[in-house]
TrEMBL record:
<keyword id="KW-1134">Transmembrane beta strand</keyword>
<dbReference type="InterPro" id="IPR036942">
    <property type="entry name" value="Beta-barrel_TonB_sf"/>
</dbReference>
<keyword id="KW-0472">Membrane</keyword>
<comment type="similarity">
    <text>Belongs to the TonB-dependent receptor family.</text>
</comment>
<feature type="domain" description="TonB-dependent receptor plug">
    <location>
        <begin position="46"/>
        <end position="154"/>
    </location>
</feature>
<protein>
    <submittedName>
        <fullName>TonB-dependent vitamin B12 receptor</fullName>
    </submittedName>
</protein>
<dbReference type="InterPro" id="IPR037066">
    <property type="entry name" value="Plug_dom_sf"/>
</dbReference>
<keyword id="KW-0998">Cell outer membrane</keyword>
<dbReference type="Pfam" id="PF07715">
    <property type="entry name" value="Plug"/>
</dbReference>
<keyword id="KW-0813">Transport</keyword>
<dbReference type="InterPro" id="IPR012910">
    <property type="entry name" value="Plug_dom"/>
</dbReference>
<keyword id="KW-0675">Receptor</keyword>
<dbReference type="InterPro" id="IPR039426">
    <property type="entry name" value="TonB-dep_rcpt-like"/>
</dbReference>
<keyword id="KW-0812">Transmembrane</keyword>
<keyword id="KW-0732">Signal</keyword>
Amino acid sequence: MNKNFIRISAIIALVTTCGYAQEKDSTKVNQLQELVISDTKFAQSKEKSGKVITKISAEELQKKSGQSLATVLSSVAGVEINGNQSANGKNLGYYIRGGKNQQVLVLIDGNPVTDASGISFEYDLRLLPVDQVESIEVMKGAASTLYGTGAATAVINIILKKSSKKPLQANAYVNIGSNNTSTNSKYNGQDFNQGFSVNGTVKKVNYLASINSTESDGMSQIAALENQTNENDRFSRVNYMSKIGFKASEKLTLDFFGNYDVLKNDYDFSFDNTGFNDTDLNKSNTEQFRFGFSPKYKYNRGEFVINSSFTKLQRDYSEFNSWTSVIENSLYESRGINLDAFNKYKVTNDFFLVTGVNYQFYDMLSETPYAKITRKSTKFNMIDPYLTGVYTSKFGLNINAGARLNVHSEYGNQVVYNINPSFSFGKDVPVKLLASYSTAYVTPSLYQLYSEFGNTKLTPEKNATIEAGFEVGLLNKKLIFNAVAFHREQNNSFGFYFDNVTFDSYYINIEGINKAKGVETELSYTLNSKFKLNANYTFTQVDKNLDRLIPKHKANASVDYFASERLFFNVNYQYLDGRKDVYFDGNTFGTASVKLGSYQLVNALVKYELIKNRLSIFGAATNILNEDFTENIGYSTRGRNFRLGLNISL
């Protein structure tokens, strides 16, 4: 703990010696004038979009101070990030519209991010601190036309913080919290998060440098059985982010970025719901290095952009084998290259075309006690040309339609397409009707193809989604309500085969079509300048093969109260319906299912500006009712916890 206080003191001292700069920007964005980029890759009015895109702005993120990125996303309609209420080192599951990790594409500043050596090819949200995020867009539904493989149920577009227009701006923050389960009431500091950033613009050059550090202890990943005490699992993360941009002319800008992230944690398994593998010998270390270059050129009738990035990620594990009483070491390493060149051309005032070509390359290596896989035999690439047309009329009709040809080194050609019409009408009571039909594909991961459990005969999973809904503004647009119904079908789903007699195990395609359907609703009501209510509800129904850890009913609600210009209160509520989970049964050497109970969480936040736009403090309480619940069978979850934080801006 002394080490943390030394680090905190150093950060505060560094900021306070930077001197006073001008007051920070405080831009208020009208919700109805928000710009979104996810459904066209270029900024356009949210009203012109044919999708209900949830945008979590910088202002909204401030209202969620102290929360992880996974917890923030789990409050979005239709999104369940399983594991966000467990110990920090617990793996996360992404469940959207009946899909899971491999069907959710994460973008950071427009670049797809994945772990090419991971089972499900997904990005680990634990790697990114929410403190480095400016805003988030969540677009649900198949989006392979613009984004390629993996964008089958949703695209989570994360925008990192940008440089200030001032020559120098600095920010430092620190928050300390408890880390309890519902049966532990030690409210001393066990969860630390702190960071520092400097940024600004000097003539034609803008820059940003940021560092974040997170450490936690005091909680075991595995849930303790009766009369059992488990060892605590430590978690630590350090993130370095840098950006530099050059405005070569009024038309041409050049942007560079670099990220280095280190994540270390203890971990445990609960294969058979007994916690037998609770040990302090299991340790994991993850290092991620990302850099990229993004030139943008604007001309009279359009804009040309290149997003390019290189990612190298390494994971190593030291794991105690309870059968042999030996510590075994494993190494996984992956590399990824993304190059996406796309152009917006304004054909008329009402119609523009987005054309592009996307190149992606991935390889991996792994060394485990059971197999060694080299990069030479474990790689693939994709070259995808795509075209999208966007029509936005003055009388309310909007149409977004396009197609993409995926040329995969292992699977040949795959064609996906979408059509997304919408219509807005009414002035006193503005209403937008929307509908879409879109297809998507998901290719097997390198691990599913080439690992010791791999199957090179796997074929890509195919998806099709149809949705329809509306958005309406009432009471002079103070009340905004939307609802979307969806029906999704996936064919050739990926599964895992295990023979409990021969112990043969490998990945397979599940024959037949699996379906998911549901409704997502959102409500926003601004009572006056002091009170605002936000709520959402999601209903999801899936076929048997998809039914794991997906709640049929989920609801979120929050109330914002601005007591004054400097004092803010928030209370939020979350309800999750019962879910089905699966675990390994040591008696039968097979899997068994269990029904997890429903649960509800009540959280609160108070924030106060001691010095306007310069110094603020906050206090947060989570799971105030100290509810004892289960996210995953055999694993622990957080009980009542408290957090205090300080933010300094200069």
